Each structure stands twice: as C-alpha cells, then as structure tokens.
Amino acid sequence: MIPINTLLAMVLVTLVAIAATVTVAGGLGTGRATISAAVRGAAQLGVVSAVIVFVLRSGWWTVAFIGLMLVAAGATSARRITSNLSGAWAAVSIIAGVAPVLGLILGSTLVPAAGIAVIPIAGILIGNAMVATSLAGRRALDELRTRFGEYEAALALGLLPRVAALEVFRPAASQALVPALDQTRTVGLVTLPGAYVGVLLGGASPLEAGAAQLLVLVGVLAAQAIAVLITIELVARERIVR
Q: Do both 121 and 224 map to the same domain?
C-alpha cells in the first residue's frame, strides 16, 4: 500500500512539475493543461474516495454512479472532438460501445453483479471507449478538413456524401484502436495492467488475475471497436461536425 503522507505529496508535485516543464520547454503547448489535469484528478479522486463507500452499499447508487461516469465521458469527448453542440453525439458512441460489452460480462456471471466489481470494470470500459471516441472523432474531422479536395473529387465521381467521407477519413480514424491493440499484444511482456495487479493484490492466484485481465482487455477491444465505428458513421452522416 502507498502511504498517504508528505512524501507522497512531494513526489506527486515533482512529477507534475517535470511533465509541465518538459511540455513547455518542448513547445508542446500543454503545460497549463498538465497542471490543471493533475489538480483536477487529485480532487476528483478525493471526492470519489469519500463517497465510494456509500455508492457500493446500493445497487441503485452503483447504477447512478455508472451513469455519472458516462455523462462525464461523453462531455469530455464532446469537448475534444468539436466546439459545438454536435459533439454531444459522442455520448452515443461511448454508450453503444460500453453497454453490450458490460452486459455480456455481467450476464455471463463471470463477474459478480456487485458494486465492488461492476464499478471498476465499467470505469475501465467507459474510459477506454471515451479515448477511442475522442481520437476517432478528431482524426476524422481533421482528415475531412485537410483532404476536402479529395472529398469533393469523390462527390464529383458520383459517390454519395457518406461514402465519400468514409473513403477519406476511415483509415486515419481507425488508428484510434492502435493503443488498445498494442496493449493487448504486449500484456505480460511490457506491462502488467491495473486489473491484473489489483486482482493479484486482492488475494487471487496469478492465473486468476491473468484471466481477469484478459477479460478486461478483450472487452476494451470490443467496446472501442464499436465506439470508433459509431463515431466515424456519425461524422460521415454529418451528425458530428466542426
């Protein structure tokens, strides 16, 4: 267990300072965002740590908490993809990716329908679906803007707007799946993800921890695949615009 003391605070502040300094010195333009993200993350984890005990006592509170996570994920992706209200469609992609995967995992009874198990898995699926949605939406709109001439040429050849848009940005938008694919390919060789370590520390055997981690990783692949597909369709059909 990591002790909560002054040393922890000093290490965290030092790490944030390193990240912010490097981004500023390198001209990456995310120095302020790095600091604000760290502060916000610390505050949010503090609040969650304070209320999670009450959430886990009731199935309804668990459902409400997952709903809150979905709303926050949708709002985050919306802001990342575009500055107008069409970004609200990002929530559809996230929900479409998470709902069937979480439903299958819980319906199979491989994971008990208890808050202590459901919330972590739901959080992992929602977080990864959010990242994939944001990346796919941004890449799709960026490609459509920079390669608009190709889009118009495809229209001139008789392609429908949806088909022409997909031909322009689908390959680039699909790159949003690469991080999850790489993580799954290299699990156990390069990294030991959080689910594995958490289950192991909870008293399970290494084999049981590995099975839990594999279930989560494959679930993430499925959730992200659905989320990315829905996102590029929404962009192609001009539901999400810039």
A: yes
Q: Where residue 57 falls among pLDDT bands split at 50, 70, 90? A: confident
Identify whether the C-beta of residue 197 lies closer than 8 Å to the C-beta of residue 103. no
Pairwise pLDDT comparison (203 vs 35), residue with the higher score = 35
pTM of the model: 0.83
Any domain includes 241: no
Domain-located, residue 157: yes
Domain count, the chain: 2
The answer to whether the CB of 131 falls within 8 A of the CB of 141 is: no
User: How far is residue 21's CA from residue 23's CA, in Å, rounded to a whole number?
Assistant: 6
> Is the domain of 116 the same as that of 229?
yes
For residue 38 the two structure tokens come to 């760290």
CA-CA-CA-CA dihedral for 43, 47, 52, 58, to nearest 10: -140
Using CA atoms, how far residue 120 sits from 9, 183, 194, 212, 226, in Å, is 25, 18, 10, 12, 20
Are residues 77 and 43 both part of a single domain? no
pLDDT at 95 over 80: yes
Q: How far apart are CA 143 and CA 25, in angstroms?
A: 29
- Residue 166: which H helix or E strand, with range? helix 161-173
Burial of 230 (0-12, 13-18, 19+ CB in 10 A): buried
Distances in Å between the Cα of 21 and the Cα atoms of 15, 33, 75, 167 are 10, 12, 28, 40
